[in-house]
Structure formats: structure tokens, C-alpha cells
Amino acid sequence: MNAGTLSRGDWAALRLPIAGSRVVVARGDEVEDLDPTTQEVVARLRTSIPADVAEAVGRAEAAFKTTSWRSDGRLRSQVLWRFAERLRTNVEPLAELLTREQGKTIGEARSEISGSADMVEYYAGLARSLYGRSAVLGEHVHGVVVREPVGVVAVITPWNWPLTLLMRSLAPALAAGNTCVVKPASLTPAITVRALDLLAEDGTLPDGVVTCVLGPGSVVGDALVGAPGVEMIAFTGESGTGTAVMQRAALGTRKVALELGGKSPNIVFADANLEKALDGAMNAIFTTSGQICTAGSRLLLESSIYESFVARLVERVATLQMGDPLLATTTLAPLVSADQRRTVEDYIALGRKEGTVLTGGEPPSEEYLARGYFVPATVIVDLPLTSAVVREEIFGPVLTVHPFAAEGEAVALAEDTDFGLAAGIWTSDLDRAWRVGRAVRSGTVWINTYHHFYPEAEVGGFRRSGLGRQQGIEGLLEFTETKHLNFDAKPTLW
Ligand code: NDP
């Protein structure tokens, strides 16, 4: 099926949790899950009550203690491989559900599902290679350092890339032998449950290895973070929520991995391939309509190209097509919710007061307003560096642009932030790319590219952007404890 054949008329709301779901534990109120483009009901679900959270954690504890899951790397690898295969077979229905529930374009939804399968495949391989170290510590003394799973891991996810961000934590946590309780964002439960049910179709997956609870973070998420059986929390979301989760986890001395917000600089030097840099600047900020943690939301331009680059950027922005994200022609999708649109519009209003809005920022036409939570792509210049529009994460299609005179000033501007998740550098000077790349304190620095992610390569944040790393080998080791087994092999002792 291609995007052109998708039709708004043929959708019947899902009723989730589906009877017989092996993963969802939810006996609370029924809620409606709405499409941000049309406000049609995408799914009807039940939320979890506190007793459901306790039950899900209890099942995960039992699976960890009583099954072979934590010791059988081959089983874990096979389960993950088969899960990846089912994700790949179901790209089309999952992508359609993702677009209807989250609002992102269908092309992006397809790549999110395929990318999630890729992540699961990567950790399926690593599940069989969880190596430790050994050392000779004395004439007869040997140390063997092994990596063991942490135990029950709570995986709490946001709504912007709900499957990618779920798999980025869930796949390594499972590969390392943990059992998991997932709590998805309240705006994207259906895609999460659908994917987890595909995982649970595997007849060899022991009961309780993966369960899912649904409902508001302030109630269900909070209960999960505080549940006595949970030993680690892998949280992806906003920096303020992450801080609250960390405080709550500290009460039980629980391990946390935090993937939080960003306000990433994208630096263009005059010697760059400017055509490519323009494409890169558009992709950096308008992917997922700016609702992406690594959004290159602060564009830093060398003064000599400032005027001409901004003029071309404004022309390019005018070509973006707002519209139905199920159509292949749409390049700017709606935001996820009315609340998110209100927040973004408030920042634009502030930008209009404190700077100059060059393009966008006007309310969309009636046609769009009637149909979804659209916000036009917006470029703002002349803002003071103290403005909240420059300093805070907006999570919408809003780009601020700032000139710099020299490399040192570019680095100082890039570093003038509380965050440190990602950065972009555009230059044809290899020495400069290296120098600036080392000077900017961010978990990822893209050079002459932007928004390319690989399961093999770690991501994560400096400063308020998070704690720990996901993806890659480090992403697997995050979900382990280190144990030293110490042998005294003196013959008289044995
Ligand atoms: P939130 O922090 O609002 O929510 C994230 C998750 O936490 C949701 O499942 C939410 O549930 C839950 N939650 C909320 N309050 C609590 C609580 N007190 N205890 C436990 N769980 C809770 O983030 P958003 O969903 O709005 O996502 C956007 C944010 O995520 C942005 O800041 C973005 O930068 C960040 N992000 C970071 C990424 C990274 O890799 N660093 C990747 C993607 C996004 P509910 O939905 O019910 O409120």
C-alpha cells in the first residue's frame, strides 16, 4: 500500500487493550485516544489503577526470579529477532496507526517503524555477547568481572517518537536479561500496545517479562517509579519531569537513565556547502514539526552569509506543505495536541514582542484550524540571547537565528545553554570541524549532516539533557550491574 491509497474514511477505532493481550494490565476508566489532525477516535483504552501497577511489577519480578530469561542469552536473542521480523512485516499498519495517533507524516512514520526494527535487531545480536573481564590479582587469586541484569526496569516514554524511543530502552534492557514494565505517554498508548502485543505473540517469551501500564504520568508513572520491586527507571521525556523522576527514584536508591530535553545549536560557517547547509537547517528544525529532542532550534550563521542565508531559508520555509499527514505531499504535520499548540503559540507571541518574526507565526487558514493542531513553520530573528524563546525548549516548528563574527563566538553562543543533547556544524574546513566538534559539549555532534541516528552509536545528554547513554554498547551496559567474582585458587583451599 502507498500513502496515496490511505483514506480517512476506512478507519474503525481500535478497542485496546485487546482482549487476551499478554502485556497490558489496565482495569481503570475507559479513555478515548484522538487523532490530532481530525479529532477522530483512534482507539478506546482502559487506564491502569495503582493495583494494576503493583500487579505488573509483581509479574515482572516473578519472571526475573523464576524463569530462565536472565540467564539465557540465546533465548533473548531469538525472541528479539522474531520481534524485529514482525515489526518489519507490519510496517504499513503500524505506520498508519502512528500517523493517526501522533500526527506525524506517513513517510516519517514508516521510517520510525523500520528504524525501531533495526534497533531491535542490533540488540538481538548483542544479547549473546554480554562479556565481562578477568584479571589475575595475586599468585593464586583470580577476579572475574561479569555483567548481570539490574532486575525489573520501568521504561517510561514520551509521545514524539513513541516506538523509536521505546525500543531504544526496551531492546537493550531485554537483551541484558532484565524484565520490563512499560508506561507510554498518554498521547500515544495505541501504537505502543500494538507493538508490545507483537512482541508478546512469541510463544517462547516467558509471561511477565514485558508488561504495560497505561494512564497519566502523575498517577500511573509516579506509582511505577515508586513501586518497591522496580530497580531501575529508564525515562525519556522533558527535563523537569526527569528531575522529578530522579528525586522520587532517589528515595528508593534506584538506578536511573534519563534522556531529556534540548535546545541544540546548528552552526553554519561561510566556507560550508551552503546548499547542503540549507537542507540541513530545514531538516534540523522541521522534522516532526520541531517536536524532536535533538531539534536544531538555534541556527548560528557566520555574519558574512547571514542576510543571504536567512533570505533563502525564508523562501524555503514558504514551500513547506501543511496538511493531512497521511498524504505523501504533506511536509509539515500538525502538533500532537491542543496543549502543545498553545505552548508553541505562546512562544511565538513572545518572539513577536522581543524580536522579529520573519515567516510563519500567523494562525493557519480556517481549513487547517478546523482539522488539526497546525502551527506554521516560524523563523524569528533579532532576539536577545536572554529571551525564553532562545533559552527554553519549545518543541514546535520555531527556529531562532543568530549571527556570529568568528569561530570563538560561534562556540560561545552554542555553549550558552542549559542543555547539551546535540549540535550541528557545517564547514569545509576539517580542522575547524574537529576543533568546534570537541569544544561543543553535546552528546551528539553532526558535521555536515543532521539527524542521522545509528543503533551502533551512543546518544545522550550533557548538563540538563540527561544522564547516561542509550544505543550502542554503552546503551546495553546501562541496563547491567557489574559483579566481581573473586577466587582464591590456592590448592590447599580446595
Ligand atoms: P513528559 O516529560 O511530559 O512525559 C514523558 C513521560 O513521562 C510520559 O509517559 C509521561 O506520562 C510520563 N510522566 C509525566 N509525569 C510523570 C511522573 N511524575 N512520574 C513518572 N512519569 C511521568 O515529556 P513529553 O511526553 O511531553 O515529551 C517531550 C519531551 O521529551 C521533550 O522535552 C523532549 O525533549 C523529550 N525527549 C527527549 C529525548 C531524548 O532522547 N533526550 C527524546 C524524545 C523526547 P503522560 O504522557 O501521561 O504525561
Pairing-aware structural class of the strands and helices?
Answer: alpha/beta
The count of domains is: 2
The biggest beta sheet reads: 7 strands, mixed
CATH topology of the largest domain: Aldehyde Dehydrogenase, Chain A, domain 1
- Helix count, per DSSP? 16
In the CATH scheme, the class of the largest domain would be Alpha Beta
CATH superfamily of the largest domain: Aldehyde Dehydrogenase, Chain A, domain 1
Q: Strand content of the residues, in percent?
A: 15-25%
Distance between the termini: 68 Å
What does this structure look like?
- The chain has 494 residues and is an alpha/beta fold.
- It folds into two domains: 274 residues, Aldehyde Dehydrogenase, Chain A, domain 1 (3-Layer(aba) Sandwich), CATH 3.40.605.10; 190 residues, Aldehyde Dehydrogenase, Chain A, domain 2, CATH 3.40.309.
- It contains 16 helices and 21 strands.
- 51% of the residues are buried.
- NADPH dihydro-nicotinamide-adenine-dinucleotide phosphate binds next to helix 7 and helix 8.
Short overview:
This protein has 494 residues and is an alpha/beta fold. It has helices spanning 50-66, 73-89, 91-102, 106-126, 162-175, 189-200, 217-226, 239-251, 274-286, 303-317, 338-354, 366-371, 388-391, 407-415, 430-439, 472-477, and strands at 14-15, 30-34, 41-46, 133-136, 141-149, 152-156, 179-183, 210-212, 232-236, 255-259, 265-268, 298-302, 356-359, 378-381, 398-404, 422-426, 444-447, 459-460, 466-467, 469-470, 480-488.
